[in-house]
């Protein structure tokens, strides 16, 4: 499982989720991509994750202890946008994808974002002004890309998410080119962090079923 962080999170924050995957026999690889964690000092946020995604999939597939024919990708928040981009770029190599609280079109969410979130995006995108940051936000869209996703896709979302409107989840689930499932938690906040027992074990079982043919 390739694990991707959000706008203001880093790979070290995924330990609890990783443990659920490990308990089900799924190897995990959490990474800081462009604009994330340690990588933010050298690489700005980028909308097109086909390059980073393919590079990461190539690296994982080359590991002798990993079955390169059974790769999955999981992402949370802005990582929930990156994960579908990786799945679209990875083609048949990606056997399952989970998008947790990710936007379909980040620009469409811009006016609803708190000032702190917009400023974090500006800095990590390397934009000199908020206006330029807003322009870059509109490049983070799955329009025209989601249809290339052939792997099974699980979209997890909270209807009370105050950062990303829940309609974004519906757009992603409807636009994918493969099988998709939308798990909408009515009381869920951003990342459904307030309802982890209602989606984390389910997600881990869902992934194990598709990558191993088993659950815990």
UniProtKB/TrEMBL annotation:
What are the recorded Gene Ontology BP terms? proteolysis
Do you know which PANTHER family this protein is assigned to?
CONIDIAL PIGMENT BIOSYNTHESIS PROTEIN AYG1 (AFU_ORTHOLOGUE AFUA_2G17550), DIENELACTONE HYDROLASE DOMAIN-CONTAINING PROTEIN-RELATED
Task: Please give the superkingdom of this protein's source.
Answer: Bacteria
InterPro entries according to UniProt = AB_hydrolase_fold (IPR029058), FrsA_esterase (IPR050261), Peptidase_S9_cat (IPR001375)
Taxonomic lineage is: Bacteria, Bacillati, Actinomycetota, Actinomycetes, Streptosporangiales
Keywords, in A-Z order: Aminopeptidase, Hydrolase, Protease
What protein does this entry describe? Dipeptidyl aminopeptidase/acylaminoacyl peptidase
| Organism annotation | Nonomuraea rubra
Q: Which GO terms of the molecular function aspect are on file?
A: aminopeptidase activity; serine-type peptidase activity
- What SUPFAM superfamilies does the entry give? alpha/beta-Hydrolases
Transmembrane spans:
none
Peptidase S9 prolyl oligopeptidase catalytic domain ranges (all copies) = 23-194
Q: Which family does it belong to?
A: Belongs to the AB hydrolase superfamily.
Gene3D superfamilies assigned: alpha/beta hydrolase
